[in-house]
Amino acid sequence: MKRVPAVAWTGLIWLVLLTMPYWMRAVGGYTELASRVLVLGLAAMSLNFLLGFTGVLSFGHAAYFGLGAYGAAMTIKYIAPSTPLGILVGVATGTLAAMVIGALIARLRGVYFAMVTIAFGQVFYFIAFRWNSVTGGDDGVTGWKRQALDLGLAKIDLLGNDKAFYYFILACFAIAVTLMWLLLRSPFGRTLLAIRENERRARFLGVPVERHIWLSFVISCCFVSLAGTLYALLNNFTDPRALRWDQSGNFVIMAVLGGMRSFWGPLIGAAIFVVLQDYVSSHTENWMSFIGLFFVLVVLFFPRGVLGILRRKGMA
Amino acid sequence: MTQLLLFNVFNGLIVGAFYALMALGLSLILNLSGVINFAHGGFLALGAYIAYTLIPYVGFWGGLAIAPFATAAVGIVVEWALIRRLYGRDPLYSLLLTFGLAYIFEDVLRAIWGAQSVPYPIPPELSTPLSSQFFFLTGYRLFMVGLAALVVLALFLILNRTRLGMRIRAGTADLETVSVLGINVRILRTLNFGLGIYLAGLAGVLAAGMLGLQPTIGTSLIMPSFVAIIVGGLGSLPGTLLGGLLIGLAAGITAVFFPSATEAVMYVMMGLVLLVRPRGLLGEEGRVS
């Protein structure tokens, strides 16, 4: 791939993201839909840090997404009405859980790793579902709202102003994505690619593979829990569905649909998935069949994803 | 107290038997084909609904006999049409495909039979308690445990004493060599998939009589089955059986002392096993990485 087109593509993506709230309505969408694309896109890109760039299949990322959401929601409801504090606590909760579970599973590989992440993903679902007195059980954490952002000089109304909140999410997204991009370009990121391509060889070169996989898992989960906090803020509530297994599967299909081997692919996959889900679920009761069929078709006919196909045809 | 404990231990054993039946099927497919069948719970529910539909015509016993085979037939068609295309590719793809199938199953079952729980008839001679002191010992429960034990025994006999079973075990160890020796690996995998789905269908028919029948019945059983495989050890069928029974029992006993942690306890067990013995209780060495 030549260098210039890559820059052009990146510029185009940022331009679209920066102007999205202004043309969403014209194409039949709404600002909240744009916000959801950003949030789930961030989740899918975070997952892809592990999936696409380290070559480790995690099928349980919804757990950390949900922990972020619950962390933010419960902080704002019970501790202090502050949006940044909610985000901090949410990210810390998700990352901490990932550090512990990551230590248990960093030695496992392939199908086994996937299966253990699926199973561990359910632990937090059951905790959220069963621990009624704290988490609100099936109803989730309700009765709170995202708070205005106090910057000292000015207050930004995130609740009433859809666009302001979109740009707040975009700012968080930009920070997270830039960090991931820098990490992937660093020697650490290159080592992750080496592990993906040939783990044994990396090991012979003296790379502590388990520690790298653990770190990659923790970093990936850290950003996914950031997406989770934003998701809770976007909805002004959170419930156990945020951390159930189907959410994990949705993240993986977004990454695959967009293209696992490209940095921006998962964002494009998320955009397609979110818009499709929004459209289908408002037109039919049987949206689950459509989404399921969509999974099957993507796997059979687009395993390389949208960007994979474009790249093959020499367009990107 | 003793009675309550006994009740829950017995209950745990039954639930553990369901987990084991389900997990053995999952394990068969995973070991030979490297496919994590997320749709296994969907097949389980399908088996139960097929039996439910057949019972008015062929009676309880007829449903019990026919439904698992019908489910296996559906499974073989799905394997032949879809899953077979993904062998040898990254396990990610078969996982996503069966994940999509699980969505479709749940939705289609709901569209045909409704989202509400339907009453599943069991014959009166099996539903009366056998003793007034141990009210929970109904004939149906004993029958379930007995049948599950028989089926597991039959499965191990098939695997250890028949040509098909021998090929399945050989293929699990080294599929390439088996293929080079002139055995049709494609058909072997299809039959093996059908065998796994048969177990799911049977578990569904049995579970429906105890838990009631609704489209999500499979979803609530599939996660514990994953845990059973991990606890028991990847690649080992006796391990899977042990894992299923163990987590069922653990959940049953926990239900007496700390009911809200009933589900959590199996994940704690899984964490402990991974910490102390990552390959699982009876897992083979080297399977993990």
Can you give a write-up of this model?
The complex is a heterodimer of chains A (316) and B (289). Chain A starts with a helix and ends with a helix. In chain A, strands 1-2 form a two-stranded antiparallel ribbon. In chain A, helix 2 packs parallel to helix 7, helix 7 crosses helix 8 and helix 7 runs antiparallel to helix 10. Chain A is 73% helix and 1% strand. Chain A has 14 helices and two strands; from the N terminus they run H-H-H-H-H-H-E-E-H-H-H-H-H-H-H-H. Chain A is globular and about 55 Å long. Chain A has a single domain, classed as Orthogonal Bundle (ABC transporter involved in vitamin B12 uptake, BtuC). By secondary structure, chain B is mainly alpha-helical. Chain B has a domain of 202 residues. Chain B is 75% helix and 0% strand. In chain B, helix 1 packs parallel to helix 5. Chain B is globular. The chains are: A mainly alpha (316), B mainly alpha (289). At the A-B interface, helix 5, helix 11 and helix 13 of A face helix 3, helix 9 and helix 11 of B.
What's a quick, concise take on this entry?
With 316 residues, chain A is an all-alpha fold. Chain A has a single domain, classed as Orthogonal Bundle (ABC transporter involved in vitamin B12 uptake, BtuC). Chain A is built from 14 helices and two strands, in the order H-H-H-H-H-H-E-E-H-H-H-H-H-H-H-H.
The number of helices of chain A is 14
The first-to-last residue Cα distance of chain A is: 7 Å
What structural class should be given to the helix and strand makeup of chain B? mainly alpha
Task: Give the overall shape of chain B.
Answer: globular
The strands making up the biggest β-sheet of chain A line up spatially as 1-2
The tally of beta strands of chain B, per DSSP, is 0
Q: Supply Rg of chain B.
A: 19 Å
Strand content of chain B: under 5%
